[in-house]
Each structure stands twice: as C-alpha cells, then as structure tokens.
Amino acid sequence: MTILVTGATANIGRMVVDELLALGATDVRALTVDPARAALPPQVEVVTGFFDQPDAVAAALDGVDKLYLAPHRSTVADTCRAAAKAGVRHIVDLAGFKGLHWQVIEDAVEATGIPYTHLEPGEFMSNTTNWAPQIRAGDEIRDAWGDAAGAPIAQEDIAAVAARVLLSGEHEGQSYELTGPETISRRQQLAAIGDALGRDLVYVELTGEAARAHYRELMGEFGDWYLDGLAQQAAHPQPAQQTVATLLNRPAMTYSEWARRHADLFR
C-alpha cells in the first residue's frame, strides 16, 4: 500500500511522514517543494513539487492508494480530480471546523466520490509563537482578549491522528473535530510559557483600535476575523474534545507540555 503525504516540507505533513514510519509503514512517498529542507528519511520516496505543478502532482499520485492532503485551497479541486484519476482509494484531508474558510477543502474531497476522512483541528498551540519576538524583547506581551479561552491542539497530535487514520480502514466517511485536552485562556498559555522559561511574563491587554491594528499588522486580511473569534471565545470558551485521546489511545498533549518541549522557540 503506497501512501502519499503532501505538504511534507515542514510542520504537520513532515510529522505525518515520521509517524507513518514509526507505525511500520513501508511504502511512503512525500511531495515536497524543498527536499533539502524536508530532510526526509532515506526510505521515503521523494517527489519534488507543489500543488500548482500538475506534472509533479500527477507523478506523486501515480500508484498511490492513500493520500494525506495538506490544505491548499486554491488548488484543492485540481488536486482532488488528479487523485481520482490516479485511482486513490482514501483521502485523509486536513481542513478545519465546518463552515469556515477551510470548508472548500472538504467540499472538493467529497466531490470526488473517493472515501474520505476529514480532520478538523481548531487553533494550533504553535500559533502562540507570534508572541516570541515580544518575549525575547522583554517580560510584557501586548495582545488582545487575554481571557479568551480555547482548546488549542499540538501539531504533533494532528500528525499522529493522520498517520493512524491512514493506516486503518475504520475511519472512512468520518469527520473528526480535533482539539487539545483542556480549555485554557491566553493568559494561562502565556503563564505556561513563562514557567517553561523560568520567567514571569505579563499579559498587557490591547483593546479597541489598538487591538485591531495589532492583528492587521500580524495577519493582514485575516486579522479582523481572528480578533472577532477571540471575542467569541472570551464570551463562550471553546470546550475541549476527547477525540484525540480516543483515536490515539493516549492523552493529547497539554499546552504546558507543548511549551516545555518548544521553549527554545521563545528564547
């Protein structure tokens, strides 16, 4: 059984490759735009290219049974059609909560008629690396909605779920909402980073136009959307789901553990 992992240069896709190998997969192929940066293990077949390169996508899909589909909205319909033409038998896609801007991923996958499993993670724990420049510069971190509480997930757990679903025949037609194991506020996340660094970090609340200007600078056109989402989480904290623990038969990573593992990102 040949498994293709797209988006294998870094982050989740690269982690999926390692998880598959750790679980005993022997025929793993990776589509990566930068093989040197990806530094894939020698037993992985490497195809160089990106989603907007039809010949590379076709070559990567040739003979593939199962596909991990990294999210790339502008090309997803073409990639899915290519997967159907290649005879792929199962697509495990990374999208997001239903109805948001990642919905186009799930729609394109389902349009192929190929059996699918949708992975729908919420916010990544790694998003708090946006604080890294401020943390390196001092002990005050200026941001909005410190009491907004979500259930962020570690990318490592998303990759672990993806690998197990790819190697199983029991998850076709399922949509899995993936969160971390706890609901935690942004102030609490910052405190966890401080604990990992051995420092006392202070959350300085931005409000009004100062908050909007901060997020527009940080995220461009998505800044207002993200800020509005924080306001919703302040009013209605996101509940944690236990889906990751159920699928992996182990606890999902807590934010404090993630901060300890990745403390160097903030030093």
Rg over CA atoms:
19 Å
Count of distinct strands? 11
- Fraction of residues in helix: 40-55%
- How would you spell out the order of helices and strands? EHEHEHEHEHEHEEHEEHEHHHH
Q: Poorly predicted ranges (pLDDT <50, ≥5 residues)?
A: none
CATH level-two architecture of the largest domain: 3-Layer(aba) Sandwich
Q: What gross morphology would you assign?
A: globular
Mean pLDDT: 97
Count of discrete structural domains = 2
For the biggest β-sheet, the strand order reads: 3-2-1-4-5-6-9
Q: In CATH, what is the homologous superfamily of the largest domain?
A: NAD(P)-binding Rossmann-like Domain
What fold name stands as the CATH topology of the largest domain?
Rossmann fold
How far apart the termini lie comes to 43 Å
Count of helical regions: 12
User: What CATH first level of the largest domain would be assigned?
Assistant: Alpha Beta
